[in-house]
TrEMBL record:
Residues 9-206 form the Diphthamide synthase domain. Keywords: Ligase. GO terms for molecular function: diphthine-ammonia ligase activity. The lineage of its organism: Bacteria, Pseudomonadati, Bacteroidota, Flavobacteriia, Flavobacteriales. Its EC number is 6.3.1.14. This is Diphthine--ammonia ligase. Pfam families: Diphthami_syn_2 (PF01902).
Length: 247
């Protein structure tokens, strides 16, 4: 019998992660040893999603897979981010974990970056939903009984009315044509609170909706920022966040 491949799962708390985890758990080739999540060290919320750590921990408990939190500073440089990631992966490698699973769909540059960084440490990337059409993925997600709420939207693509909504067919129908239905370009982020991978639903109530705009890095070499984007006017736009309060 072939040896099962020990893997970590890059868990964002959102829908793509949930569907990807569902798929990889059905693959006997891999054994998921832990969920790895990047958390803003200052605010103790999931990076980019803005979800409280308490809800992240509730997800892991319901999924029944150990959670590994990677503490990352607010607006880290690429150097700082990669140092933290290398230290974390090296620790996991020492536990026999050699594979890293992602829920990426079609961003070629992002996959290339991940694979290059992983290879330096001796890891291999695994991408179970790669190149599956976004519409097929979201329809499968809903049909499987997953439930997810939009916790962050980028105002470049969506207005405040979209944050705090449950993703269903009405939500999909309301999306502008230039927005990927899975938000793969960063249009929106989600928190998944029920579905076939959970032993019980995550209980929460909806808190306030807040607007946040990030300052452009003051250094001339802005490419040295881990949150950097190639879009020149990226910092002209802000984000709407919906706070979720654990019950």
């Amino acid at each position: 019998m072939p040896t099962t491949k020990k893997a970590l799962f890059n868990w964002s708390s959102g829908k793509d992660s949930a569907l990807t985890l569902y798929k990889i758990l059905q693959n006997p080739e891999f054994k998921i040893e832990c969920l790895l999540t990047s958390v803003n060290q200052q605010y103790q919320r999931i990076s980019m999603h803005g979800v409280r750590v308490e809800l992240l921990q509730a997800q892991a408990e319901s999924i029944r897979i150990p959670l590994k939190i990677m503490q990352v500073p607010e607006m880290p440089t690429m150097e700082v981010y990669e140092t933290v990631m290398t230290e974390t992966l090296t620790e996991l490698k020492n536990q026999g974990i050699m594979y890293s699973v992602f829920g990426d769909i079609f961003l070629e540059d992002l996959r290339k970056y991940r694979e290059e960084q992983l290879s330096r440490i001796g890891f291999e990337g695994v991408f179970p939903i790669w190149k599956i059409p976004s519409l097929d993925l979201i329809q499968e997600f809903i049909s499987l009984g997953f439930k997810t709420i939009v916790v962050c939207v980028n105002e470049r693509y969506l207005d405040k009315s979209f944050v705090g909504r449950i993703i269903d067919q009405d939500f999909i129908n309301d999306l502008p044509k230039n927005v990927d239905v899975c938000g793969e370009n960063g249009e929106f982020h989600t928190f998944t609170f029920d579905g076939p991978i959970f032993s019980k639903p995550i209980d929460f109530e909806i808190g306030e909706i807040v607007y946040r705009k990030y300052e452009k890095p003051k250094t001339q070499d802005s490419s040295n920022k881990a949150c950097d984007t190639n879009t020149a006017d990226a910092f002209d736009f802000g984000f709407w966040y919906c706070d979720l309060i654990p019950k």
